[in-house]
Amino acid sequence: MNFEQFVRSEITQMKPYTPIVPFAVLSQRLGRPSADIIKLDANENPYGASPKAMAALANLPYVHIYPDPEATPLREALSAVTGVPQERLLVGAGADELIDLVFRAVLSPGDGVVDCPPSFGMYPFSTAVNAGRYIPIRRRADFSLDVEAIERVVREQHPKLLVICSPNNPDGSVIDDDSLRRLLALPVLVLLDEAYVDFAEGVNRGGRGERGGKGEEGFAVGHLHWVMEYDNLVVLRTFSKLAGLAGLRVGYGAFPDWLLPHLWKIKQPYNTSVAASAAAVAALDDLAWLREKTLLIVAERERLGNLLAEVDWLRPYPSQANFILCRVDGRDAAQLKHDLEQRGILVRYFNKPGLDNCIRISVGRPSDTDTLLKALREIGG
Ligand SMILES: *Cc1c(COP(=O)(O)O)cnc(C)c1O
Predict the structure, then answer these.
(1) Percent of the chain whose pLDDT exceeds 70
(2) Assigned CATH topology for domain 51-286
(3) What is the C-alpha separation between 13 and 217, in angstroms, rounded?
(4) Where are the domains of the chain?
């Protein structure tokens, strides 16, 4: 008997996932200590986690006890900084888990999911795992959304989900409020992924925002509070990027009230670890640190963008996130990625529709920018 036929057909049809090379393995391969590698390939915070988060991790009292399934202290802290009622918030093992949770809750086999590529790889991934029907509506050459095409496909194909990433990974463009309101008028559940909104300009920052009067001053509320206004909106955020907790896996989202009871039912009870929750609560107690690092990263993004624009064979795109996508002209981007790697600098390489011959560079510290630019000059000859 061929037992492999027991595997669900949509899963046998999936292409295998290419895992990233673990940092330790790469350090060995390049013959460089990890500390000497400049990691600009995964949009992590170059400053690490806040000192308060690190102190909380060093002093964890209850690792032998299962975590609180409702992650109450973290949801309370999130409610206090965002102004979104705690009842509307759910936390997970990274925003990635919450993407999957929403898909699992709403998709029956064959239900449509509209994605706007090029964008984040987890959307087609979770669509495939949950037996959804993937409906790509490509972004325009400048990475803006084709709102008319999305409206048409929603009317014609009745998908259940529309995923919008803003700022979009991998280019860093944002959706404007008018377009978002147009999409929210459609009969579809909109999943707005704001993993990078902390770095965007003109974003609602708590106390100073147009409507976020209850939020904490300086905290990027983004569109979280729009869930109180729209019944078909989910907004996701993460502690992985700005808060520097990527390794601990913790993200959160704001959800419509009709969806929440069902998400609570299907959520793994212990999805957020004791360590992840404690570090996230402590990070939210260190907003001044987060704000300071945000400003450093945003300032560095502007400097890096200007310097990259001076390299004749690179075409950087404007970005509202903590990374910059570059088109590589007249040379092979894969070779460029390799040449940088040999010098201990890691960047992300893409070669697919809309992203042919591109690299994406995460914003690091000023010294990382300097090292990168020196390497680019050497490679450029
Ligand atoms: C990094 C990233 C996430 C998720 O991160 P988690 O580490 O799972 O919280 C979600 N969306 C986008 C667009 C990302 O780039």
Answers:
(1) 97
(2) Aspartate Aminotransferase; domain 2 (3.40.640)
(3) 48
(4) 3-48+288-380, 51-286
